[in-house]
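Co-fold these.
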Amino acid sequence: MLLSFAQMLLSFAQWIQFTPLFTALRGSANVYPIIMSLHMVGLALFGGMILMTDLRLLGWAMRKRSIADVINQFRVPKRWGLLLTATCGILMAGSKAEEYYYNAFFRAKLILFAVVIVQELVFYRSVYANPAVLDRSPSVPGNAKLAAALSLLLWTSIACCGRGIGYIEPPLDKIHAQMQGIRDAALVPRGLYFLKGQDHPNVASAN
Amino acid sequence: MLLLQIESIADALNSSEWVFPITECFHIAAFAWSIGLIAAVDYRLLGFGIQHSKPSEVLRDTAPWTLLGLAVVLLSGPILFLSDVRMYLHNPSFVFKMYALAAAILFNYTIHRKVAQSDSSSQAARVVTAIVSLALWISVVFGGLFIAFA
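Predicted complex below.
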């Protein structure tokens, strides 16, 4: 079951990267780094707004302004920043989808996104949805501070994982060759390899 | 002599494969931090969100944190640079980035600060200042990223 889910993801990655848009993107020398730069610009625009919100919730910055004011005022710019970063991120991931599928940092990043979504859902009602309630208590409630600390930690980790993706280059050629070998092995009886004077691919990959 | 010293620093930095990536993470997190906060002031100058506060208030609220972010950027940056001085000096993107960075910092602490501090500055002055500021900082980011592609 788990294996077939992984295979589905892999097939999806292999299919999507050969759609016309992503094929064109991958082929162009200049567009890719421009999208990457815009991804970084978006990161700054989005990250800065998240930071201000979290610092206010922690009670470290802008203590003279109400929490509601800070959260509500930064909401719209924050969303535009997220939109820019996410769009560029999807374009980058899509054009190298198969490679990214094997990339450990990309996998970690996706898991962290899932954790961020859970974090938002858990704290949505008590912190983000009605910040005016937080302002009524004499000091920032503990769960709001926890939400802010988690948010800072998670988003920083996501940024670092994003950088990490660039450090790994999964050897696609080798992986393809190995998979071809496994497919061949399934079709060709072991004896034939012996007759051809070759190692069976399963044996060769085990070595 | 200086070159020899730089080489030995580079060797020390390159002796562990973790020094560069970890320094880079600090560099990236801190640039997002500082440029994002400068952008918050620019958004206010442009009238895009954050309307409840005056520009001077947004500036005052963000300034210490912007400075902290810039400090981390300006400390981690030279460490990255020293790991391969020759490559960076010959990299046109890096050279461009340094000029853009100098211009951006200079602009930020002179004209940008003046316009944001004065709550009576004209709408035109605000918009122009915000656009120049955003353009300068975006050039710095582009210059940094294109180092890897130059």
